[in-house]
Amino acid sequence: YTATSNNLQFNSISPLNTMNMAKPSANDIEQMIQRARPTNRDLVRRDINHGINSSISSLLLKIAPYFYNNGTSKDLLCLHGTVACQYKGNRYYIPIEIWFQQDHPNVPPLAYVKPTSDMFVSTASRDVQPDGTIIIPYIKNWRHPNSDLQTLLKAMSEAFSQSPPVYSNSNMVNRPTPYPINPPAMPMPTPVTMPMNSGGNPSYSYPYGYPQTQIPQDVYRDSVQTAVLDKVRIRLDEIMQMGKAQIDSLKKTEQDLIDGERKIQSFIVDAQQQQSQAQTYITNLQTKTHEMLEATQKMSSSSGKGNNSVKEDALITPAPVYKQLLQAYAEEHAMQDLLYYLADGLKRNSIGLDTYLKHVRELSRKQFILRATMRKCRQIAGLPLK
């Protein structure tokens, strides 16, 4: 396209060499998807395969940093190559790039026309902005799940067939084709608009860094500083997040230790109270045991005297043998009651097993002697034996 004639200087051309390049294998595509880590990997993989295998385009896949207008960057998947269009009976191939955002296809892709050093973007195009951004209605109205990349390529081809988005440079009239065989590298997709040249034609430095004009050194310096600051900021955020997580973990551990200390103190207080109660029980048991021993000794001493357990005037016996029988009978029943209370005290844990066995052994021996004495007295008195 020239400034004087305003005519397209296109001849019938061949697509870029991406058609002759080997398509990426499924393994290469999967590795790049894993590096980019999109949210919807299956849908991204589907659109990539549709774009690479489309009959109206010749696209290859790469992963490269995309620089946003706010100075941040992110590694995104990009399909780059050409899309075919028909204009005035001839077939042309428009160089494009399509960037997949992290939430693709919930958000539309970022599409750009990729002009070479001998091309300019048409200022009259309704489908492409001066910085190369493609703004066809299909991208503006992108809605998932009704929108996909295959239909987007068809919409681009139809829009470019109505109005080609690029013009050839008037200084490159003798060049047989406006498309370079080996397109230059694409360091970043941030558009930078350049001033008008002396001939009145717009001169742009598009988001792909073509050597159309010399980029000042301070632009590179600012770009590198921005990238370094962004990486430092990201790393600092990661370190702060890790530190915050560690602090939260330590705080939780501290709270757990405090709760554990409170529980241990409560257990110690309960144990001390139980120890005090046990000591009280032991003292009471020793007192009761001492009283029982004294009562048993008194009973034994009274039994040895023979005439103190029953008053002389309580019962009148006709003979001494009956008196001895009555005395033995009373003592035997008293021992029987004492054995009962000893067993009840053992059951209630009022006395120990050793104390119980000691007194039971002693009382049983005395009870045996009393029963033998009662049997002998009955024989002498002529009373029936039970």
TrEMBL record:
Its main location: other. GO terms for molecular function: ubiquitin binding. GO terms for cellular component: ESCRT I complex. InterPro entries: ESCRT-I_UEV_domain, ESCRT_assembly_dom, SB_dom, UBQ-conjugating_enzyme/RWD, UEV_N. One of its GO terms (biological process) is endosome to lysosome transport. Transmembrane segments: none annotated. Residues 319-386 form the SB domain. It is found in: Endosome. Residues 25-170 form the UEV domain. Keywords: Coiled coil, Endosome, Protein transport, Transport. Pfam families: UEV (PF05743), Vps23_core (PF09454). Belongs to the ubiquitin-conjugating enzyme family. UEV subfamily. This is Tumor susceptibility protein 101. It comes from Rotaria magnacalcarata.
